Amino acid sequence: MEKTKAFKEQVVMISGGLGDIGQAIAKAFASEGAYVAIGDILPVNEANKVRINLGIAEGYYHYQQVDVRDGQVVADWVEAVTQYWKLPSIAIVNAATVTLKNFQQLTDVEWNNELQVNLSGAYFFANALAKRLEAKGQPGNIVFLGSWAAHAVHSHIPAYSVSKAGIRMLCRSMALAYASVGIRVNELAPGYVNAGLSKAVWERDPDLAAQAKTKVPLHSLIETDELASQVLWLCHAQNKHITGSTFLIDGGLSLVSISEK
Fold first, then answer.
1. Which of 113, 102, 98, 30 shows the shortest CA–CA distance to 67?
2. Is residue 196 very low, low, confident or very high in pLDDT (cuts 50, 70, 90)?
3. Is the pTM of this model over 0.85?
4. CATH tag, 11-248
5. What proportion of the chain, given as a percentage, has pLDDT over 90?
6. Phi-psi category of 256—alpha, beta or left, where left has phi over 0 and alpha has psi -120 to 50?
7. Which long-range contacts (CB under 8 A, 24 or more apart) does 225-228 make?
8. What region, left, alpha or beta, does residue 195 occupy, with left being phi > 0 and alpha being psi -120 to 50 degrees?
9. What's the pLDDT score for residue 115?
10. By mean pLDDT, which of 87-101, 176-190, 203-217, 232-246 is the weakest?
11. Can you tell me the distance from the alpha carbon of 150 to that of 102, in angstroms, rounded to the nearest whole number?
């Protein structure tokens, strides 16, 4: 007898879904029977390539080009997905950008853009869906992809760190605001993930990857499929009592003093 899929016919929305982490999360949810709606800034033809590469059936995949900095665009995306399938029950707030500059180098434009994408965009997306779920009296799950940089100073990415610190309080505030209607809001805060910009750097210079591993007490980098499995776990019905929580997945990085990093 076939095992019942944990998220069968649930609708999941993922912002920044065409990145390495977003794709891994999309694939994981699709494997558990979910309908997956991805929003990102890339054109539709790029999104179609991703669907094929991930092996997601066409009827279980929806893509829309979305600039999360625009609250109305985000609200329209939620509406479009609702009309296409039904009201989503899960939002994975993943869209983010990072500027590798310290405070002395960072421009006002770069600061504003990073806060708009990482923090305002997260608020627009999470709150747009939460309000709809509340209006319908439906429970749901919102998961913010945060970072250990929210609590550990990173002098080379200050705007990113500040935005992720904001995400942590946004998570806690929304968790309390929507708990009465069964909407759970949580944060996953990873350390060194083998994805995105970091992955590109480590692939070009394996020595840097080895150095990163030595900084992690558990001596390993986080792979995207490992992170995706934690996202699914947190959204599972068995965790109905977990809300407003931050789950560190950093291999012990937060246990090491700043001077040792």
1. 113
2. confident
3. yes
4. 3.40.50.720
5. 84
6. beta
7. 225/24, 225/27, 225/28, 227/21, 227/24, 227/25, 227/188, 227/190, 227/193, 228/21, 228/24, 228/25, 228/27, 228/28
8. beta
9. 98
10. 203-217
11. 16
